[in-house]
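*** Query protein ***
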Amino acid sequence: MGKYDDFISLDISGMSSDERQFGKRKRIDRLKIPAGESKVIRFLRGPRDPKFYIVRKQHWGIPIGMGKTPPLPCNYSHFEEPCFFCQVVNDYYNAGDPRKQDLARRMKASASVMSNVIDVDDPFNEDGTPKVQIYQYSWRLFSDIRSYFQNPEYGDLTHPLTGRNFKISANVVSSSGDKSWTRYDVQVGASPKELVVPEALDHLYDLDAEFPVKHWSYEQQEQIFEGLLDPKGSPGQPSLTGKTPATKQIAAPDPLDVEDEFEPASKKVVQEEVVEEKDDWDEVLSDDESPAEPEDDVLKKLDELKKLAKGGK
């Protein structure tokens, strides 16, 4: 027997497995709808998935804690248990101090909804694979979309054979200086359409895996707020720091043989939209978006609010 006769073969498959588990994950492809534009999309779900979306409710504008504090889950909404951030928001709203009320508005938890979608007019990647994207949208827009799903007249709007496409339009309704107000209008196709790329159902993102919910206890949330716990670590292995809080930083081919027809649009549209006669849309449902404040102004205000939240003047 030779010295290396029992030398086993290299397990190449193990490399692929390790890459999937530990390697750098591919960048999430997100659907963006710029102001003044619209997209026709199809909401997707797997054959065994009972829902086409997930919801995450998070506290965003936490001005105290470690640098670049990420949005943090609301314990009350996700785990039905006391939430320190909700308590702070409630206390500040009722404090009678406009500065604290401003901080409370920034910290108030807001819900986002995520869905797998495909852009009907751009359904393929450069390599020919289905271009599945994640669409993240507001709870108010979800409420409009949900009203169509709850209407028995439309049936299952995600079904690959009998579902329908949606048209989402982003309209700037007014602006002032650097601020602008965007309204998102949603319309559903007037007739069922087959899914433009059926293979897309084999390329769906695992939404729960892409958007995991970390569970921070009430005490840990308080430590995060006070700058004693880094929320970028693991809840099970917290990293305690000194008591001085860090500064908060803000940081294909034509997919359809026949074009969609949509039911008539309502007169709610601010600017008249030129629609070809062959297009027919359902009524418009709208979601108004609050104006975005310039980042420099936000940072200045947060510097003041941090001092206030710590008991300064």
